Amino acid sequence: MQYPQDAQVTDDFELAGVPDSFQRLWTPYRMAYIKGGQDQVKDEASCPFCAGPGRTDGEALIVHRGETCFVILNLFPYNPGHLLICPYRHVPNYTDITLEETAEMAALAQKSMRVLRAVSNPAGFNLGMNQGEAGGAGIAAHLHQHVVPRWSGDGNFFPIIAQTKAIPQTLSEVREAIATAWLDVE
C-alpha cells in the first residue's frame, strides 16, 4: 500500500477510501444528491411523500396503500424495485410514529421483500432508514424506510466512474409488475 509522503504510517493507520477488511463501498458521488435535497422539503406543502397519495398510483409510483402507510417506488433508485415505505403523516423520525404505524411499516417491509422475490428474485436486500440531515436522509422531513433489492455484482463501475446507473426497466414498468404481484403474494 502506498501512502502520501507526508503521512505518518502506523500499523493501525488507514486512509479514508482505501480498501480495508470491512469491504467498504465508497460512493462520494452520492453527496450531490444528499446535499441537494437537504433544504428543499420543510413542510407538507413541499413534501413529495405528502403529495403522492393525492395522485393516482401510476402518477405517484405507489405500489400499495395501507391504513397508516403506503409503499412507493424510489424516484432515484439504487436498483430496480427500490421501494420506500412512508407513513401518511408528515413526521421526520421513527420515534414520532405510533405503534400502529410502526407495526404496519414492519409488515409492509416484509411484504415488500416477498413481492420483490416473486417479481425479480434478488439475492439479498438492504433495509434501512436515514434519520435526519446528518444521517443522510435525502428528504429528512418525512420518515421513509428503504427496501432495496440486491443482486451479486449489482455494484459495478458505472455509478462510480461514469456517474450512470443502469436500470433495465422504466419506473412505470417496475411499478406495474410490483403492484400486480402485490395482490397475489401473501
TrEMBL record:
Sequence motif: Histidine triad motif, positions? 142-146
| Keyword terms of this UniProt record | Nucleotide-binding, Nucleotidyltransferase, Transferase
Name the Enzyme Commission number(s) assigned to this protein: 2.7.7.53
* Regions crossing the membrane: none
Where is each HIT domain found? 49-157
| One MF annotation (Gene Ontology) recorded for this entry | ATP:ADP adenylyltransferase activity
Q: Which domain of life is it from?
A: Bacteria
Protein's name in the database: ATP adenylyltransferase
* Native source organism of the sequence: Glutamicibacter protophormiae
